[in-house]
Amino acid sequence: MSRVLSIVVPVFNEAKNVQPLFDALEEASKDLGHVVEYVFVDDGSTDDSALVLTQLAKKVGERVKVVLLSRNFGKEVALSAGVTYARGEGIVTLDADLQHPPALLPELVAKWTAGADVVIAVRRATAAKSLLRRASSFFFRVVARSLAGDAQKVEGTDYRLIDAKVREAFLLVGEKRRAYRQIVDWLGFTRAEVPFDAGRRHEGTSTYSWPKLWSLAIDMIVSRSSVPLRMLLYLGVLISVASVVSLVWMQFAINFSPRWLYTPLAKTVVFNTLLNGIVVTALGVLGLYVARIHEEVLGRPLFAVRATIHCARDDAEGAGR
Ligand code: UDP
Ligand code: MG
Known about the structure:
Blueprint: E1 4-11, H1 15-29, E2 35-42, H2 49-60, E3 64-69, H3 75-85, E4 90-93, H4 105-113, E5 118-126, H5 131-148, E6 156-163, H6 164-171, H7 180-187, E7 191-198, H8 210-224, H9 227-256, H10 262-298, E8 305-309
Parallel strand pairs: 1-2, 1-4, 2-3, 5-7
Antiparallel strand pairs: 3-8, 4-6, 5-6
Bound molecules: uridine-5'-diphosphate and magnesium ion (MG).
């Protein structure tokens, strides 16, 4: 049964990686028995990526679609744009830097053919990651898991295959601040996993800077649950109870042991500071949620497109929703 498989690749300054990636994907997909189409999304690259992609599309033809975004929107939005334009019965998303091995493609497709609607490549180890980075991603996983409020997996990567019906459901999700894999996880459907070892980036350096990673982590937590708010509430109650207990104890000490006279005052000052800290933290957390509401309420489109190649007009239906 020959079905169309779309391969979606977000591209940000990957001029040197496009051709090797394309060759590797062609090699990996030649025995699949599916028609393979590509959707390369140029995410406002400042190098020759757009040119390289345009040339590739010209050389290969209709099978290579290119979407040029009007500026850099970030990987998550670029992925969403790619999925919007993808028309295959199965849609694979992967990074352009060859850290997601194309050789894994047959395994992903096999599980899809066997009936899974979402096939996720799960990373075993990343050779290229520094100890610090690995420690922080471990920390992030632990935090995400304990805050998640559900038992969903957070180890999965963006290297995944989704069925067209998952894409349809995906396009109905309207939130602007997004992590692709989190939305796909949220959607559910029948899932399968394929383990792999992530290698080093082929050319260039990772563009996922620390600030970007942290803001993604915060987005994932805030959009996932209201657990931070609830924890804050518990903390507030705890502090209040502790304050009352201390006050009672201080009154007792003052009445029965005059030499404690100064310490209670100092304690009161400390407590006051602590309470101020908690109020500020609470405002900060509330602010996070309000900021999100504000962003969603603005109702801006998710992305803007500068030009497309080999994309039919109605391919963009639902684009930028
Ligand atoms: N990427 C993108 N827009 C960005 C940053 C990255 O489309 O603003 C793409 C990039 O070209 C690559 C993928 O997202 O295909 C992963 O990026 P990177 O390798 O920098 O991230 P890491 O591997 O460190 O997670
Ligand atoms: Mg990478």
